[in-house]
Amino acid sequence: MTATRPPYQLELDLPMPGRGEAPRLDWQEVEAVTATAERESPAPTEHLMEAICDPANIETALRAVVRNKGAPGVDGITVQQLPGILKARWSEIENQLLQGRYQPQPVHRVRIPKPAGGTRNLGIPTVIDRVIQQAVLQRLQPQWDPTFSEHSYGFRPGRSAHQAVAQAQAYVIDGYRFVVDIDLAKFFDRVNHDRLMAAVAARISDRRVLRLIRAYLTAGVLDGGLFEESREGTPQGGPLSPLLSNLVLDELDRELERRSHRFVRYADDCNIYVRSGNAGRRVMASLTRFIERRLKLQINTEKSAIARPWHRSFLGFTVKDDPGFRRCIADKAVTRFKDRVRKLTRRHRGISLEKMIADLNPFVRGWAGYFGFSQWRELPSLDGWIRRRLRCVVWVQWKTRGQRYRELRRLNVPERSASAAIFSPKGPWRLSSSEALHRAFTKARFRRLGLLSMETLVSA
Asked: How far apart are the first and last CA of the chain?
């Protein structure tokens, strides 16, 4: 061991037996796999479990789980405790895996709100199960990913939502100006276990790995202290779930390719682009039958539609109905952005302006990193809207007329403008765009206070 290895590697200190013949495969290498569309599944898998349990593979999985942090599972063990506990228990766990006897613990159900309302169920595995799932993923993904469709973009190394949006835009530019927007109802909750395991068994010959994957599918859920059996579905929240979901939907991709459709799929969001409304209706009807009868899944009829692309959103973007069909941020995404900023800039949070800006900045940076892909100039106006929200907060925090006057004068606002502001009958929101507050809190002042500008982040 070298002094430069991370602390959790030093603490784990796995034995290095001679049986581990699989080459070391860092997670960074997994991320670099290029997605192509080879149809044949590569490499024999008779001794796959030995490759999964290889010490180098387990240490790489451990690093990934620790790096991703996340909440504890049903056993309450945190990622901080994980290295020491895994070191103490690994010999026993490894024996169980190699003998095909390992039994995962149930996942912990967590409900998170959906942007459009309602909740989404997440199943949080224990941190030890996350390490094992990650180790399985690191061995399977390099083998499986090259066999997936070139039209699939979700949860794949070297592929992104931006690539999916750009491809969808290219279809529109090429003249396919109707979209069949298919939304699968509760996809992750309704995956048929038998169909999924049949697809896995077609690619894996090691029965121990097949039993392990089946065990993860049927491990059950603890929800509020009550145990629920898992008879269908692949819980969102574990490292292995995205790969299994792509395997399930690869059959849909192949059917769409067989029909020579132009389509883009990102996880369970699938858009097919056609030239006419009549063609769209035929596609929707035939695919509904295929998905429900063949894949044993259901289409969400309320969210699925045949429409012009500029009337629909895809992964937070849409295309404008203009000569260039430029991509822009979807209205729903802007609405969710403003709702989040409103929560972070509530007038009566009782924190300083500097602390409020510090809370805003991570969200602003992440949002700009994703939506800066837009070809429309929405970010400058949203930057200005954030600054107006903060000016409104400051005005409310100053509370009294006397304090407002003193603070404005301290910030070099002319006496006339300060007096006009404090005696104005307008409310805080309308006053936030007044001359006095603009003079007090300029763009330069907000920069000095540390507020990030999305426009600057994107152009940097």
From this structure: 40
